[in-house]
Amino acid sequence: MTRTRDVLPSLALAGAILVAGGTAAGAQDAAPAGRVLTFGISSDFRVSDNLNLDLVSPGTATVWDTRLSFGFLTETRTSRFALGLDGVVRLADVPGADTAVRLDDPGLTLGYSREAANSRLSFDAELRRTNLDFIDPLDLADIDPTDLVTDTGRREIRRATLAFETGINDPLGFLVELDHSERLYTGTTDPELFDRRTDTVEATARMRLSPVAEGRVTAALEEYRAEDAPGTERTTRSLSLGLSYQVAPDTTLDAEIGSEEIEERLAVPPGTTTDRGAFGTLALTRRLPNGTLGLTLERSFSPDGARTTLSASRALDLPAGSLAFSLGASRGERGDTEAVASLDYLQRLPDGEFTAALAREVSTDDDGEDVLTTRAELGYSHRLTPISSVAFGLDHVETDDLGSGTVTPADRSSFTATYTHALTRDWDLSAGYEYRRRSTTGGGDAHSNTVFVTLERDFRFRP
Q1: What is the spatial distance between Cα 95 and Cα 145, in angstroms, rounded to a whole number?
Q2: Would you say residue 11 has pLDDT above 70?
Q3: pTM of this prediction?
């Protein structure tokens, strides 16, 4: 176990070295048009009557954020390298805190991929530190239950993924993936915000059995370590067999079955428990003239036990947009049955567009707890003139505990109205209003009203 935890970060570092070496090699192939430099600046001034969504507002807060970003991208026929840097110069006048100018929310992203005739290598990394006083979880694409916890302090996220695949065009191929992720907190007080680290290694052997059938064998090992009150450490081992079969020219069957062992060790009180269970997936997909139709049966296994989910999906190409939706049910080992659904709708209008999205799903968080997450979004934009437009957005997310009760149910909502005007070809000015709401079980409701003005532009160069 310890050896695995030590090796994975080292391999991620080795990936970074490969990136540096690969970049130099790719630079020899690249044409000048394949390189792009991007500089961005966004100055946002906002006034809020309850910035941190406290139950009782401490007073009006004024925040002036100037976000600076830099990006470098170089591409050739066989390789791609991308680097991104960003940060915020922040001047904040917040009740109970000193007014000062500081450099905040620094971030770094790195990506590299290279393809050969019969192999593929990719590496991605991210390092981001966030001031929790100024974060809005509704801005995040993927929301963890801890993102809805309101607290002060800082959160640091570290991620690195290294993947290598060989034998892409051969009857026998192999894929190895390494993944490292960390969430670290400083200056926080909520017990749900604790440091955690996950390391995963996964190896897959793929076999082309016939022109319409492909089999695979996958072995995976995951190490999880948390600095929570019990001092949790968890080792998960799994082995699975999979088959992809083209039943008909327009119909594909994908099946997987496997076994998983979860060993959990607690420091307080000391003890070790081991659970074993089966997991699997059976998915049938059919291509239609105007989209796809699918049916999926999935059984998962976690420290909360086994869970079975059945869902049907449909994707449609519309004359002026698209529609994709699914509907199903998920049943846990405790006997709870929850409806699961998804919706993605886009309608292009003569002078704008309308969007709607819904995701209601059951997932297992870092603590091994089953969590029900529901997120709904509505958006509408309308072009007033060739250089001005208005946009309205509704966003709602809520999480609920389906496990042993360690996840605090919470929800957040927001409504935003924005007017945008193009000052020049490169500069955009936006102004608007935002209403936010936060609610937790037993914690009451909190509200805030915010007005904002934003000036931004991006510079792109091809050296």
Answers
A1: 27
A2: no
A3: 0.85
Half-sphere exposure in the Cβ direction for 460 (13 Å, CA): 6
CA distance 362 to 375: 12
Torsions phi, psi of 233, nearest 5? -130, 135
Using DSSP, state whether 2 is helix, strand or coil. helix
Rounded to an integer, what is the distance from CA 348 to the centroid of its chain?
A: 26
Q: Tell me the C-alpha distance between 363 and 20, whole Å.
A: 36
C-alpha distances in Å from residue 20, one per residue of 83, 107, 110, 128, 177: 11, 19, 11, 21, 19
Task: Give dist(CA 301, CA 279) in Å, integer.
Answer: 6
In this structure, what are the phi and psi dihedrals at residue 205, rounded to the nearest 5 degrees?
A: -105, 125
Nearest to 194 by CA among 151, 234, 133: 151
5 Cβ contact list (under 8 Å, min separation 6): 197, 199, 223, 225
One-letter amino acid for residue 61 of the chain: A
Q: Which pLDDT does position 96 carry in this prediction?
A: 83
Q: How far apart are CA 203 and CA 176, in angstroms?
A: 4
Instruction: Please list the residues that pair with 83 across neighbouring strands.
Output: 72, 110
